[in-house]
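Our collaborator T.R. sent over the components below with a one-line note: 'Predict the complex.' Nothing else. No constraints on interfaces, no templates requested, no preferences about which chain binds where. So this is a plain run: every listed entity goes in together, and whatever single assembly comes back becomes the starting point for the next discussion.
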Amino acid sequence: EAGVAQSPRYKIIEKRQSVAFWCNPISGHATLYWYQQILGQGPKLLIQFQNNGVVDDSQLPKDRFSAERLKGVDSTLKIQPAKLEDSAVYLCASSSRWGSMYNEQFFGPGTRLTVL
Amino acid sequence: GESVGLHLPTLSVQEGDNSIINCAYSNSASDYFIWYKQESGKGPQFIIDIRSNMDKRQGQRVTVLLNKTVKHLSLQIAATQPGDSAVYFCAENTRGESSYKLIFGSGTRLLVRP
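Returned assembly:
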């Protein structure tokens, strides 16, 4: 089966500009996650969707970050305006189940964002 | 190639030797743990998992050990191969307000010398 798709793979912007990332999860996966991975650290969850509803966005900096999954399939993550500290890899993951502890997440290749 | 992390702890092993990667977790209430492998330019890939009612679980060339008393996990890779070179993360699946979520550790870079 096809994996999680993300685009673009790389993006370079200047601070205060806007940027958007796109994710297409594995077909049939109802749960979608966005993570931020700063260089040298493990991924940190930003937001979790179950179908088109937000389950957890407690670590999303809502003053500048937004995400949507309008039709319950693909999703976009936006940063507006970007700051230098937003430089990171943004990973999308999906899973077939929700509410279960034993829930394998499948990760996409990520988008590497550099803010100058 | 693209670097996943520049300041990660690094374990360097000779090809064919066994590798042991360690991880401390934070939440004593966590019941499920996963090891991920992340190669340069790729997302994390599931390797093996273990539930809290187990002390040990074996896969193909990999073994995970869990010590709940000291909140410690280890990943053992037998007969390490060049393709095992990557950054390894442990993750604990913890209960949030309305769902479970993964909390990742800081990672260890494994370098395999030919």
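Summary for T.R.: Chain A has one domain: 5-9+19-97.
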